[in-house]
Amino acid sequence: MKASLLRNISKPFYSTGNFGLMLKDVAYDIAKKGVEANEFFRQIVNIGNRSFAIVFLTNIFTGMVLALQTAYGLERFGAKLYVGNIVALAITRELGPVLTAIMLCGRVGSGIAAELASMVVTEQVDAIRALGADPIRKLVSPRILAAILVLPLMSVLADFIGIAGGGLVAIYQLDLTPHTYFNSVVNFVTLRDCFDGLVKASFFGFVLVSISCYAGLTAEGGTEGVGHATTKAVVVGSITILISDFFLTRLLIMI
Amino acid sequence: MVEEKKREGDCNPPIVFRNVAMSFNGLQVHRDISFQICESEIVTILGPSGTGKTVLLKLMMGLLFPTGGDIEVFGVHLSSCTEKDLQTIRSKIGMLFQGAALFDSLSVYENIAYPLRERGGFSEKEIREVVKRNLSLVDLPGIEGKYPPELSGGMKKRVGLARALAVSPKIVLFDEPTTGLDPTSVRLIDDLILKLKEELDITCVLVTHDIESSKRVSDRWILVHNGCVLADGPVRHLLEHNSHVKNFVEGRWNT
User: Fold this and answer.
1) Do residue A4 and residue B119 have CB atoms under 8 angstroms apart?
2) Is residue A33 part of a domain?
3) Interface subset of A 132-151, CB within 8 angstroms of B
4) Which pTM does this prediction carry?
5) ipTM score of the complex?
6) Domain limits at A124?
């Protein structure tokens, strides 16, 4: 009873420590041997393909609802013309990267965790080691690097789609001219805003895939373990993204 | 101790377990396991389900590490090995996993070629020859282009064996090699195990519940129960003189 309680208390510390060790192995592997090109490109296609539709739908409707809501508030001050500024700033600095990361956490993160967990419970990860290869090099490093690269690309896409969504509402519902809307976007958003969004997206890519890989590789107990690993990847990944978003934003504003 | 050393020296054992203990999350699986496997010997580890027989194979391979005692493989103490040393040891050992552990995303050809590619130094022509030869050996010629999900359980096992033999190992570990196979395939695997010993001098360690198959191929049985070795000796001798073994084989085992 006492031992079991102690084990439960120490479990989060143990997991955090092991997660850190996995990241150390990834860093060492990439620094020393680079990354396997074939697997890296396969993962880029995989992550991008899996998430294009979901990123499109999420961001177009977010842009649209954001335009509606801000217009509702700004109309009271006769400032409806500034809808484009607020939509663009919110999307590029915050909603684009965060929503993309959250959606990818559900779509890609869960897929990675389930795939790796299945490999663990069917002994394929043991087989990789038995055949003289390194599971970190084969399974983790290419996925993390691909996510670090793909997330900013998806985030750029999300920015364009979100702003376009806002534009649809601004033009067809709020009766702004396309020129007014897009002019306010271009004149207000700076390169720095876009850059901050990309930095966030890269970081979120790293966070969501490394957590998913860890959840998958530490799966235990057959098919039930696959389910647990998937849930863990999505829940822990999403929460970590939201928490780290605050601190990252704070840091980027300070710099 | 001196006698034990002498015995070890006599048969030139590539695998020696000394007072090995193993536990998972506080659950003691092995308390005191000691045995040795001699060169060119076929040994079956028997025991009721859940006694950690597969764990013993993974300990031999350095895929798991004991919580107590010492394991020596090819004269090297596994506890003092680096990952690189372990990879050298693993390159001399082939393992057939319980569910074959084939990589679902790779074709049969790529699965068998995998250890060769990892080791390096083989031309594509050599790899093709090894794949063809090994598939013929397990009586599955011409299935190079198929993927694991297209194969039956028995075929997967035989492909797993073809992969385990790809790097010409000195020891092959078989985890339930004949479970779920039809009698013809069982006979084929049995003949193959005998052939490995007779023609290639390969040491084989089996974990199985298929007593008839084990009687046919094994030189020696090791019966494990409650984390200890209950019986260890030549098959015929144990069947005639050991009450534990007789009870186990006849299904009158009282746990």
Assistant:
1) no
2) no
3) 132-134
4) 0.87
5) 0.87
6) 42-254
